[in-house]
Amino acid sequence: MIVSDGMKNVVINESEYEIELFVFDKDGLMFESGQFWVELAQSRIRAMYRNYPDVSHEVVRRWMQLVGGSCKFEDGYLKVTDMDPMGIFAVAPVPEEILVAASFFAEHLGLDWLSARKMAEEVFTASDELFELERALKPRRGFPQIFHRLREAKIPYGIATSDTKERAKLSVDLFDDYGYVDFTVTVDDVEKGKPNPDMLLLIQKQTGISMEKIAMVGDSLVDVKMAREACAIGIGIPEQESMRQNMQGIADEIIESLDDICIKKGE
Fold first, then answer.
1. Which of 19, 33, 48, 230 could bridge 200 with an S-S bond, Cβ 3.0-4.6 Å?
2. Which residues pair with residue 142 across a beta bridge?
3. Is 200 helix (H, G, I), strand (E, B) or coil?
4. In b/e form, how buried is each residue of 32-71, taking b as 16+ CB within 10 angstroms?
């Protein structure tokens, strides 16, 4: 059980909150989502070409288009140029992505279900091996400084992500010390991922901290919806104006960056 040393005054948009625990999303919140998603999608294309070289460029392009990717042909190779922040790739956890890919392969490659699912699993496994994490990570403004401020204030913090624990650890360690992160919860730990409240309910159970004193900070609608469903404090830091509009009325606070989370010093 995590026990904080008392109530902490946190100022956000000139409003004060009693927050004893911070929960952070990873992709799009600590790191710019666009670069991360493009690099990860590119690694999946490389995995497809490596494992199944006979699959045509057009089939791969249509697969990327289905999950929200924009691509162009360059020097005889398919290059990812952008990812839809509300698309399957950006929003769905990996197990759902694999099922989507398997369904697509079954339909477009004429495979039976078992063969299509095996193909999808192999491509995603190979993609993780080929993914170049350092190229994909570009910190957003305020990271990792927010972690430093919370440690100084002795407010515990952790991560709730649709990514893997291993990649969360590697990502944080590139810019800070993951050893200070109190927990990381992923979709593998719960029955239902975001925007269902399961992740925050598990965190509340593990830490013993009241939900109304837990802040969920994320860049996506699913993050603040999860907070709303769990009755936690939802703080949105969207990258796009369209996402900001979607968060209106759902997030308790919407801010520009992690720098806007201010810890009020005691008297």
1. 230
2. none
3. helix
4. bbbebbbbbbbbbbbbbbeebeebeeebbbebbebbbbbb
DSSP for 142-178 reads TTTHHHHHHHHHT--EEEE-SS-HHHHHHHHHTTS-G
Q: Which of 257, 262, 266 has the alpha carbon at shortest distance from 16?
A: 262
Computed on alpha carbons and rounded to an integer, the radius of gyration of the chain in Å comes to 19
Q: For each of the chain's 267 residues, which pLDDT tens digit applies? A: 444 455 558 999 999 999 999 999 998 899 998 888 999 999 999 999 999 999 999 999 999 999 999 999 988 889 999 999 889 998 888 899 999 999 999 999 999 999 999 999 999 999 999 999 988 999 999 999 999 999 999 999 999 998 889 999 999 999 999 999 999 999 999 999 999 999 999 999 999 999 999 999 999 999 999 999 999 999 999 988 999 999 999 999 999 999 999 998 754
Helix crossing, 57-66 with 94-109: angle to 10°? 140
Length of the chain (residues): 267
CATH of domain 9-32+138-263: 3.40.50.1000
Domain positions in the chain are: 9-32+138-263, 34-135
Read off the amino acid at residue 72.
K
The number of CA neighbours under 13 Å toward the Cβ of 105 is 22
Q: Name the residue among 6, 68, 13, 1 with its Cα closest to residue 233.
A: 13
Tokens 């925050």, located at residue? 200
Distance CA 162, CA 138 (A): 18
Task: Tell me how far CA of residue 72 lies from CA of 60, 101, 111, 135, 200, in angstroms.
Answer: 11, 20, 26, 20, 39
